[in-house]
Design a protein that fits this description.
By secondary structure, this protein is mainly alpha-helical. It has three helices and two strands; from the N terminus they run βααβα.
Amino acid sequence: MHKIVDVCQKLKAKDVEQNIAIVIGPEGGITEDEVKQLKASNQNSHVVSIGNSILRTETAGIVASAIIKFNLTC
């Protein structure tokens, strides 16, 4: 699994407009089958981690959005 910051840096280096969708897993995590389905739906998808901390679903999306926004605009 890649770090979200590393993927953001790769996207920023491409210097093209990107569409980004964030999928937050349930409390028990996303299964391997679900990851395969997500990757199959888009060949440009990346499975990333926002760190070692386990966040609540309500805050994980906000944190991921903030990290992406910061890394793509700075």
